[in-house]
Amino acid sequence: MDERSRMLADEKIGKLLFKLSLPATIGMLVQAFYNLVDTVFVGRAYGAESIQAIGGIAVAFPIQMIGMAVSLAIGIGGASIISRRLGEREQKKADKIFANLIFLSLFSSLLITGAGLLYIVPLLKTFGATDTILPYALEYLGVILSGTVLFSLAMVTNAVARAEGNAKVAMNSMMMSGGLNIILDPIFIFGFGMGIKGAAIATVLSQAIGVLYIAHYFLSGKSTLNFHPADLRPDSKIIKEVLEIGVSPFARNVSSSFMVIILNNLLAFYGGDIAIAVFGIINRLLMFTFMPMFGIIQGLQPIVGFNYGAKNYERVRESVKLAIIITTGMSIAGFLLLYLFPEQLFGIFSGDHQLIVEGKYAVRIVVLATPLVGFQVVGGALYQALGKARPSLFLSMCRQVLFLIPLVLILPKYLELFGVWAAFPLADTLAFAVTLFMVIREFKLLAEKGENVIIDPVEGNLPALGN
Predict the structure, then answer these.
(1) Per-residue pLDDT, 4
(2) Which of 48, 243, 415, 457 could pair with 419 in a Cys bridge, judged by C-beta atoms 3.0 to 4.6 Å apart?
């Protein structure tokens, strides 16, 4: 058993979660920050047209999220399997899974780029682009789609690095690309006078640098995993297992994109371009609030996956409980920030008075149930790490499909624009109740399994099934 495997098996949970989560959290914060900076620079570059420019990014982003959803499905699904294979000490199987993930990433991203560029105008119109927003969205999304393969490889390889317990490498990759994007944004937007297109170019170039860095890590022999080109040949069993687990984050993100189609069209009807721009900014602010939580999750998943594979169920429960406490604290902090300082936050993006007033009103409604989100995030991640595809898929679909979309369709008929904003806290509350029930049930099952496990005297803290 190598050093990283021993760390996942034996190290104190609090210290281990901190060690694995801190790099991921920092990396996610940098990524969220550069998403904010993109929108801030674009808003400031266009002045009187800032509402349309920000609206262009807002409409393009959910289409970009579909590509990211595919990459997340591959990365999270593959990482879950790799963690468990390493816990079971199946090195060759883990290596083969890694290579299959690279194949899936390349194949899917090239397919998305071709289809996206071919149907870019009808896609943007479907996602709510008005005639005034469409030109800005076209400039931005055209460049972003061309770099889909880089975004995909970055997400998949980062997930694999975290799965083997090396979160620092993933953090360095994300910080490198995020930091470079922040530097390149003003150069391309203002210096070269490229506006919104310059923001997209800066993003794609930054991702390329991050991919080169993490590719060097895997090819230099520093990784626990070994990359064999022969393993790139697709294995149907591996692909099926990856997609079964990955379907949960895929469904969550795709349902979010589908929800945005409905939402943007409703916002355009009840509030026009300004309502779309307001939601675009709220989306960016919420991402910045939630990203640290996903950093905790990315640190949690290899711990849960490895110890579940090693049948150490008490460590699984202990790590999940700690993650719930931390993410709930983050949720409360995010709620306070967004609820107490909306004017200051919206003022960063644009000087437009109406945008700031509308944004303050909307965000204070949208975030009312944000303190409950941390628990939901951990609950969904628990089932992904355990490799339980069906409950993971259900929880992923729960908020968006079962609750948010129906509420968004029904409430505005009676409450107009207020109904659109009110749908968010109501959906969060209902999703929290469902997640709470399922997590309590899973903890009981883990406790029952733990009663049938004894400590293997040969391996020390690595458990084995009892007789």
Answers:
(1) 65
(2) 415
pTM check: above 0.85: no
Q: Kindly report which listed range (104-118, 281-295, 341-355, 453-467) carries the lowest average pLDDT score.
A: 453-467
The least confident of 157-161, 219-223, 422-426, 445-449 is: 445-449
pLDDT tens per residue across span 181-214: 989 999 999 999 999 999 999 999 999 999 999 9
By the 10 Å C-beta count (0-12 exposed, 13-18 middle, 19+ buried), 87 is classed as: buried
Task: Convert the pLDDT of each residue in 28-80 to its tens digit.
Answer: 787 777 778 888 899 888 887 888 999 999 899 888 888 888 998 999 889 88
Once rounded to an integer, what is the mean pLDDT over residues 236-263? 84
3-class secondary structure per residue, the chain: CCHHHHHHHHCCHHHHHHHHHHHHHHHHHHHHHHHHHHHHHHHHHHHHHHHHHHHHHHHHHHHHHHHHHHHHHHHHHHHHHHHHHHHCCCHHHHHHHHHHHHHHHHHHHHHHHHHHHHCHHHHHHHCCCCCCCHHHHHHHHHHHHHCHHHHHHHHHHHHHHHHCCCHHHHHHHHHHHHHHHHHHHHHHHHHCCCHHHHHHHHHHHHHHHHHHHHHHHHHCCCCCCCCCHHHHCCCHHHHHHHHHHHHHHHHHHHHHHHHHHHHHHHHHHHCHHHHHHHHHHHHHHHHHHHHHHHHHHHHHHHHHHHHHHCCCHHHHHHHHHHHHHHHHHHHHHHHHHHHHCHHHHHHHHCCCHHHHHHHHHHHHHHCCCHHHHHHHHHHHHHHHHHCCHHHHHHHHHHHHHHHHHHHHHHHHHHHCHHHHHHHHHHHHHHHHHHHHHHHHHHHHHHHHHHCCEEECCCCCCCEEECC
d(CA 71, CA 246): 9
Going from the C-alpha of 143 to that of each of 135, 146, 203, 368, 438, the distances in angstroms are 13, 5, 9, 36, 42
Nearest-angstrom CA–CA distance, 412 and 409: 7
Cβ-proximal residues to 362 (8 Å cutoff; 6+ apart), any chain: 275, 278, 279, 282, 421
- The neighbour count for residue 335, using CB atoms within 10 Å, is 18
